Amino acid sequence: MFIGREKELSQLENAYDREGFRLFLVYGAKSSGKTTLLEEFCKNKSAIYFTATQASSRANLSKFSTTILKYSADESHEPFNFWDDALKYVAEHSGGYRIIVVIEGFDILAERDSAFMGIFSRVLENEFRESNIFLVITCVNAAFLNTSPVKRFLNGVVRLGKFLTDENIARLKEQAVKQTAHQAKFVRVPAERVILREGSINGEMYKIVSGRAICYLNYGTDNEYVLGSLKEGKTFGEYSLLTGKPGIYTVTAYTDMLLMRIERGEFTKFLEVNARNSVEIMQNMASMMNVMKVNIDMMNDDLHHIE
Which of 9, 167, 252, 283 is most buried per CB count within 10 Å? Predict the structure, then answer.
């Protein structure tokens, strides 16, 4: 039994019943029920369902290729090398039939590839607009909806006359403005850049979306010591943010990186929306404390031997 999203489900069904290309944008925080809603909507309908991951654009394109070629039972076709070719294939092979195409994590795809929004817009304009496809895209990041490229994209969709309602797009923009202050921001950091410095009070922490960082003690001194590397999904900077005291390590970018930045004023809201991260943060702090304890024990042993 499906309970709790009857209004949204009804909106989807009403839009689906209208012939011609339609685009429906579903916005909501993680674990807010978007997937459950859309899976219920797609039941007993012809649907291509794709969920983006925090992987690279090419990895997501490969996954999207597999999804659409499996749907079309086209085993002989090679995987697509470009997003526009994959999207055009969907439009060309829809055959005028009513099919649903769900792209969960549209904001992830746009953040992974700066060219994605332009490609997607052109395909909608040139390929999808004359089709009978019912396209659903989902977003998690409210700040993403408030960026200039997305505003241009949404306005372009409205000009096509295919968005669900003008009221819906206005509400989405209003929500984006209100919630931007409570959402994590994404920043790019080039390789070898110092991100956090030992001894500095930092009012922010970071989660690694892509790339790798190196964590040091006594960075840049004769006593420099590598604590370890930090990979995708790891967080750092929690200690200074939570205590207000100087940071106890330095973090530098080993590769080009994409980071999620959470400032002190946003931290509580961030954990409410991303509850799973609270466990990761505690695990990371516990791991760091363990490393620090090992180093202190080694220093004590050295002092003992000197005596």
Answer: 252
Cβ neighbors of 95 (< 8 A, separation 6 or more) are none
* Residues 171, 163 contacting (CB under 8 angstroms): no
User: pLDDT of 171-222, one tens digit each?
Assistant: 544 544 444 334 447 788 888 899 999 988 888 888 887 888 998 888 888 8
245 close to 252: Cβ distance less than 8 angstroms:
no
C-alpha dihedral sign at 252, 180, 39, 73: negative
* CA separation, residue 299 to residues 191, 225, 285 (Å): 32, 13, 21
Residue count of the chain: 307
Q: How far apart are CA 38 and CA 46, in angstroms?
A: 13
Residue 192 CB coordination number (10 Å): 11
- How does pLDDT run across 246-287, given as a tens digit for each residue? 888 899 999 888 888 887 777 776 666 555 566 666 766 666
Strand 185-189 relative to strand 250-253: parallel, antiparallel, unpaired? unpaired
Sorted by sequence, the CB contacts under 8 Å of residue 305 that are 6+ apart come out as none
* DSSP assignment of the chain: ---S-HHHHHHHHHHHTS-S-EEEEEE--TTSSHHHHHHHHHTTS-EEEEE--SS-HHHHHHHHHHHHHHHTT-TTSPPPSSHHHHHHHHHHTSTT--EEEEEETHHHHHHH-TTHHHHHHHHIIIIITTS-EEEEEEE--HHHHTSHHHHHHHHHHHHHT-BS-HHHHHHHHHHHHHHGGGS-EEEEE-TT-EEE-TT---SEEEEEEES-EEEEESTTSTT-EEEEEE-TT-EE-HHHHHH-SPPSSEEEESS-EEEEEEEGGGHHHHHHH-HHHHHHHHHHHHHHHHHHHHHHHHHHHHHHHH-
